[in-house]
Design brief:
By secondary structure, the chain is α/β, with parallel strands linked by helices. The protein is built from eleven helices and 19 strands. The strands form four sheets. Strands 4, 6, 7, 10, 11, 18 and 19 form a seven-stranded mixed β-sheet that branches. The chain has a six-stranded parallel β-sheet with strand order 14-13-12-15-16-17, sandwiched between helices. Strands 3-8-9-5 form a four-stranded mixed β-sheet, with no helix packed on it. Helix 9 links the parallel strand 16 and strand 17. The protein starts with a strand and ends with a strand.
């Protein structure tokens, strides 16, 4: 079957090959025919080594498709069922799950070190234990979440990561209060979803911050009240908040420099939500006095900071009701053969989300 493979960490191009086989099928597993998958910035971060991932590997974790086959012991899924791929399934038994923090369950990460593909030359890993830049993938049954028939595969794929992450950061993690002021730094697919979440929660001012003009323009159509470039943020802080700072600031880039800017843009007693996934050696500098004196809440948001299955259901309900716009998030579509074009679209910032259709 065809799949897009990264041979070594640090390479910026994927090779589309037709000699890849999905392996590992057995009890507790399902095989999925992938129909659509989104390109998330985390895929690029894994390719360049910012996020740890053994290689060679197949990127992709934001996918949807149909179940081809179910393994022994899987009773809640059937062949032909439409599903989205959950890259962080909850085991239901670990301490995090028992506390209701299923987004912190580590069971799914254990799969990342087990190859679920192979080629004539050897084993191939799937990113985050999945790997959706391929025609077929074998995953734990918990990674396959049924979707209603009226939800298209491309929409379901977005809900599988970017939409859930961004919406959840605003709704679950920050719990944005009505009438508040918000700034969102980084307006790709996740940042736009955070903007939509803040709008749903009733934020009065939502300032979108991004260096790419097309993304700033798009942010206005999704609910931002104004959009500025990074060098205009200080002026926006002065105009919108009289210099005090925003009630909520979302950092959706994953770099210490932007997180520091976000901290300085948050008012005393306000909330900084860290959504971007950054590198282990990129350290955020804060001094102990400001940490104490400013009393700013710093809230990391992992996968939307809430129960993932409930977040999926909420996103679908909001989409059906016309409360969130998911179709317009997909600004580009390419076949798997043109995956490197999709990577270029992400790196230049010309795409909010590119859908790879298989």
């Amino acid at each position: 079957m065809r799949a897009a493979v990264l041979h070594e960490i640090g390479q910026d191009k994927l090779e589309v090959l037709d000699d890849v086989e999905a392996v590992g099928f057995g009890p507790g597993k399902v095989k999925i025919r992938v129909r659509a998958t989104g390109l998330c910035h985390s895929d690029v971060s894994a390719m360049n080594g910012v996020l740890p991932q053994p290689a060679p590997f197949i990127p992709g974790h934001e996918g949807a498709g149909e179940i081809i086959e179910v393994g022994d012991g899987v009773s809640h899924l059937t062949a032909g069922q439409r599903v989205l791929v959950c890259w962080l399934p909850a085991c239901g038994a670990c301490p995090a799950c028992k506390r209701g923090q299923t987004q912190l369950c580590l069971a799914g990460f254990m799969n990342a070190g087990t190859p679920n593909f192979k080629r004539p030359g050897g084993d191939v890993f799937g990113f985050a234990g999945t790997g959706t830049f391929t025609e077929e993938v074998v995953v734990d049954a918990g990674c396959a979440v049924p979707i209603p028939d009226d939800v298209p595969f491309d929409i379901a794929a977005l809900i599988g990561c970017g939409v859930t992450t961004g919406l959840g950061a605003a709704i679950n993690t920050a719990d944005v209060k009505a009438g508040s002021s918000v700034a969102v730094i980084g307006c790709g697919g996740v940042g736009i979803s955070a903007i939509q979440g803040a709008r749903l929660k009733g934020a009065a001012q939502i300032v979108a911050v991004d260096p790419v003009a097309s993304r700033r323009e798009a942010a206005l159509t999704f609910g931002a009240t104004e959009a500025v470039s990074p060098d205009e943020l200080a002026d926006a802080k002065q105009r919108v908040t009289a210099g005090e700072g925003f009630d909520y600031v979302f950092e959706v880039v994953g770099k210490s420099a932007t997180a520091r800017t976000a901290y300085e843009t948050t008012r005393r007693g306000g909330t900084l939500v860290v959504v971007g996934a950054g590198a282990m050696d990129d350290n955020l500098q804060l001094n102990m006095f400001e940490l104490f004196f400013d009393e700013k809440r710093i809230l990391p948001s992992m996968y939307g900071g809430g129960d993932v299955l409930q977040s999926y259901e909420r996103a679908i309900a909001l989409w059906r009701a016309g409360r969130i716009d998911l179709e317009s998030l997909i600004t580009h579509r390419v076949p798997l053969a043109e995956i490197n074009e999709a990577l270029d679209q992400m790196r230049t910032g010309s795409a909010l989300r590119t859908c790879i259709e298989l």
